[in-house]
Specification:
The chain is an alpha+beta fold. It is built from 11 helices and 18 strands. It folds into 2 domains: about 5-135 and about 315-335, Nucleotidyltransferase, domain 5, CATH 3.30.420; about 145-310, Nucleotidyltransferase, domain 5, CATH 3.30.420. The strands form 5 sheets. Strands 3-2-1-9-10 form a 5-stranded mixed sheet, with helices on both faces. Strands 13-12-11-17-18 form a 5-stranded mixed sheet, sandwiched between helices.
């Protein structure tokens, strides 16, 4: 079905591009830096991410994807064009590829059309953009056999949304999408540090704290660690250092983690009985960057009574899933896609 073409995981936090025969060739932050005076784009991806919180008054950084959908069409189009062109340079592809691109499970038709239009305008082949639901791509990337009559459960925790879905026979049987995900965890941390330490920190610092100390479940076996962070003192306005611990971060993110765990339980309650039997046998798979938060699999397992597993390389599951759709005509012919 696809020849010398690409799959794109257009994420709130990162965009990954998979090219047939080459694997993942692009893995960059979904960030654009623009000059506010001229409206010209100054940087995209990693270069723009490095500017977050550090720009002069003439520059600003934006994330054109919010909660898994396009919030700034022009910037998304420019960003996609940059990544597609970069992929061409690395792989010498035909500059008009067919593209499989992922969207959250509960996007509207208007939002879906915006993704197709942005990809086409950015360099994809006319009428050559195929849209697949994000949890389906994640399930394929996890190695699940989604084409047969068996229930599989995937929890994909991205930057803007958490997608919980039951997949079977190439389609999504039931799904739940919530906006409690990686970005909301970062906001939780920023708010908690401000409240407890009277310290203002930025997005990049919050993300570092999340990666280093993020913990969803604490028991007697948990190793409590600490981290020195720097920010601006709210009272004096001067730079200040404080030490945060695993327990501080756990307390900060508990509401978001609980929302994710509860969405898993609610999805299980909506699952047909026959598929429930399969899920008990197959377990629950966690993918996306949020799956790397320590103890999340343990928490979900304790709350549901079903074995929860973190997928291999969870950050790239969705991109690898789009790649498998591109590489395997059988899978491409069996799953639900919008063209």
């Amino acid at each position: 079905m696809f020849n010398k073409d690409m799959g794109i995981d257009l994420g709130t936090a990162n965009t990954l591009v998979y090219v047939r025969g080459k694997g993942i060739v692009i893995n960059e932050p979904s960030v654009v830096a623009i000059n506010k005076l001229t409206n010209e784009i100054c940087a995209i991806g990693s270069e723009a991410y490095a500017m977050l919180g550090r720009t002069p008054i003439t520059l600003t950084t934006i994330r054109p994807i919010r909660n898994g959908v396009i919030s700034d069409f022009a910037m998304t189009e420019a960003m996609l064009g940059f990544f597609i062109t970069s992929a061409f340079k690395k792989t010498f592809l035909n500059p008009k590829p067919k593209v499989v691109i992922c969207v959250p499970s509960q996007v509207t038709e208007v939002e879906q059309y915006a993704v197709i239009k942005a990809a086409t305008n950015a360099g994809a082949k006319e009428h050559g953009v195929y849209v697949v639901k994000e949890p389906m791509a994640a399930a394929i990337g996890c190695g699940m056999n989604v084409t047969e009559a068996g229930g599989n459960m995937i929890v994909d925790i991205g930057g803007g949304t958490t997608e919980v879905a039951i997949v079977s026979l190439g389609g999504v049987v039931y799904s739940k999408s919530i906006r409690d995900a990686g970005d909301s965890i970062d906001r939780n941390i920023i708010s908690a540090v401000k409240k407890k330490f009277r310290l203002v920190i930025g997005e990049t610092t919050a993300e570092k704290i999340k990666k280093e100390l993020g913990c969803a479940y604490i028991d007697e076996k948990t190793k409590i660690r600490d981290m020195l962070i720097r920010g601006r003192d709210m009272l004096t306005g001067l730079p200040k250092e404080v030490t945060v611990t695993t327990e501080d971060v756990h307390d900060a993110i508990v509401d978001t983690i609980s929302a994710i765990s509860n969405s898993v339980k609610l999805t299980l309650e909506k699952t047909p009985p026959e598929l429930s039997q399969d899920i008990i046998q197959n377990g629950i798979y966690l993918s996306g960057g949020g799956a790397l938060i320590k103890g999340l699999d343990t928490l979900i397992e304790k709350n549901t009574g079903i074995k929860a597993r973190v997928a291999d390389d969870p950050l790239t599951c969705v991109a690898r899933g789009t790649g498998m759709i591109i590489d395997d005509p059988y899978i491409a012919g069996k799953i639900s896609m919008v063209h």
